[in-house]
Structure formats: structure tokens, C-alpha cells
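Practice problem: YheC/YheD family protein
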Amino acid sequence: MGVDKLKPLRSKWLKTKVILNNGSIKPFIPDTQRYNKANLWSMISRYGMVYIKPEIGTYGMGVIKAEMLSHHNFAYQIEQKRLSFDNFDSFHASLVRLVHKRSYLIQRGINLLKHNKRRFDIRVMIQLSPDNQWEATGIIGRLGHPKKIVTNYHSGGKPMDVHRLLESHASLKRRNELIQEMNELGLRIARHMKKKYPYLKQIGVDIGLDRSLKPWIIEVNVKPDPYIFNQLKNKTMYRRVIKYFRHAAKKTK
Ligand SMILES: Nc1ncnc2c1ncn2[C@@H]1O[C@H](COP(=O)(O)OP(=O)(O)OP(=O)(O)O)[C@@H](O)[C@H]1O
Ligand SMILES: [Mg+2]
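Answer key — C-alpha cells:
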């Protein structure tokens, strides 16, 4: 029952608008606009690289990475296919065929950190505890498939220990600070969204880190998969995530 109440939150546009309403979360949200030709031009000329994605999407399907390489050179990649264009009009015409009549968003692209030449991002799990407190229960890295532009498990991404992924980018002290910062950001998002959606019991926040280690909120998932934590050798996080997950499911019935 509770699940249906969260149905509107399948829209990435609605979720973005909801969290933009909170001043302490807003600085971590990459500029996001609806897909149209004018917005494509303004976003790509401002940021150089953008992600174009379905308003309602899953598993990284249909996600496109687009770049402006010079004044007259544009390129995009979807799945493992990369196409280049020597003018903006033909670039946009090709994208429009992919977008077709569905609703797509354009988001400032984050140059994600890499590990062994593969991009990775971070998933932070925030759940309501059995005594009704929000807790950061799990954090895991997702290493993208070498030839793809998304990190999703269902698109060939590999769940990995965050410390391992961050090892070459930050000292142990800095890594621990960063993990705490991401957990706190996740907790702020959960508390804020719960005010408007009281049925919310867990969220999974996808966080991208750029070279300066600034966390960017790529997406807030309201039905996060708890089982990716089972991919870690150490089962401590997995056990707690599953315990809270089952508890939340019971209360919904
Ligand atoms: N703005 C961005 N900058 C860098 N990488 C991005 C950006 N947006 C998306 N990505 C990459 O693409 C992946 C998929 O994007 P996103 O999470 O928005 O959609 P989805 O996974 O298809 O949707 P859902 O999580 O609801 O199933 C992200 O996990 C990330 O690796
Ligand atoms: Mg996602």
C-alpha cells in the first residue's frame, strides 16, 4: 500500500524539485532542466558535458552522456555507441530521435572519479530504524563497466567497498570525513522528503564525486535495492540493511 503512495516519486523531475526546496541540500544538486533544444544548448555550452536521461527510468537504461568538444564539435554516448557531429543542429536532431516523444531531463554532468580507468559513484542507504529514527545503514561504491557511461549494477557495474575505491584519491582521515559528509547529506534528504511523503521508510542516494571530492546528488531512489550490499565480503552492513528493510516492509502491511 505504502509503495503506491510513493509512485509520483518515480519522476526524477519531481524528486529534484522537492529537494531543491531545502537550502542545505540545494548546493549539492547539479543543475537539472527538462530536455528541449534551447535547454540543451544553454546547458551544454555552460557545462561542456551533460547527462540526458528519461524522467522515469531504471537500471541506467536510456541514459546518454553528451559533450561539446569545441565550437563545432559535439558527441554523445549511449550504451557502448558513440556518435560525433560537426554542428549543433544535427547533434540535436539525432538526440531527438532517441528521446522521441518521451520526457527526458538534462543534468549537468559530473566528471566522476575513476578507479582503474573506470568511473564510479557512491550509493548511500538511509533507513528508518525499528525505533523510527533515520539512520545511515550502508554505503557502497559502484564501479562502472569500462565501456559504459553508467555505474548501475544492472548495466554491468560492480559494487565495491568505498574505501578501496577512494584509496588513491584521499587519505584515510579524509575518506572518513567524506563518508560522514555523504551520510549526513543522505539523512538531511530523508528527513526533508519525509515531511512531504510520510510513507517514506528508506532512500538510496546516488552520489557522484568530482576531482575536488565535492559530493553531487545524482539521484534519490525511493525503492533502493538492499541486496547490492550482499556483494561486499564483510556482511555487517548487509545484515543491518536487510533487518531494517524487512521491518519497514512489515509495518507497511
Ligand atoms: N549528472 C551526471 N553526472 C555523471 N554521471 C551521471 C549523471 N547522471 C547519471 N549519471 C550516471 O548514470 C547512472 C544512471 O543515472 P540515474 O541514476 O539518474 O538513472 P537510473 O539509474 O536509470 O534510474 P534509477 O536509479 O531510478 O533506476 C548513475 O548511476 C551515474 O553513474
Ligand atoms: Mg540510479
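Discussion: The chain is about 35% helix and 30% strand. Students who identified this feature from the C-alpha cells alone can consider the problem solved.
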